[in-house]
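Posted in: Protein Modeling Q&A

I'm a second-year student putting together a small comparison for a lab meeting, and my supervisor asked me to include a predicted structure for Response regulator transcription factor. I've never done this before, so apologies if this is the wrong subforum. The sequence is pasted below exactly as I got it from our records. If anyone can share the structure token output, I'd also love a short note on what stands out.
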Amino acid sequence: MRVLVAEDHAELADSVARVLHREGMAVDVALDGRAALDRTAVTDYDVVVLDRDLPGVHGDDVCRALVAGPGRRTRVLMLTASGTIADRVEGLSLGADDYLPKPFAYAELVARIRALGRRAQPALPPILEHGDLRLDPAQRLATRSGLRLALSPKELAVLEYLLAAGGRVVSAEELLERVWDEAADPFTTTVKATINRLRAKLGSPPVIETVPKSGYRI
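Accepted answer (user: helix_wrangler)
Welcome! Here is the predicted structure, written out as tokens:
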């Protein structure tokens, strides 16, 4: 899942980003409204966690721009220091998909982001399966033949994306775009190295196929 955290409080933004990274999400951070609009113009985010009181371009205007975008698939989770009913109603009326007042529990934030992420794409089953391979995205748990696999957050994210593709060939460029964040170097062998580690941990018979000059599929 690719997430943008648009929050002007740098410490809070970094804290949220660290939590989401641990959950296997690819996370970018914008500290003002203009930066948020610039990033959403070039990256197709699944979810934008949007502080309503952003400087520069107000969070309300950022929300309106995201909602008005053609072929919109990005979901907006609005954050605000005000938790009144009237404020929530106003935020949702702007087009936000969900609304969470500050302070919030990180566990709830993660759960809401995951729920919105499922709505940003065709509906997927709660458990992704291929033969004896099973992945529970909510629990971040992968098993094969009933045995738990010791996968890193990034390996879990790659496996989830490939399973969700349903046999479609996924290019290295697409994996880099959807599973890594903007800090990833597109000229490195990051994707290939992660795939190789994942293959080794999944064991035999192999389930990840390399399609020459195209990418990978399960």
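A couple of things worth pointing out for your meeting: The longest strand covers residues 75-80. The radius of gyration is 18 Å.
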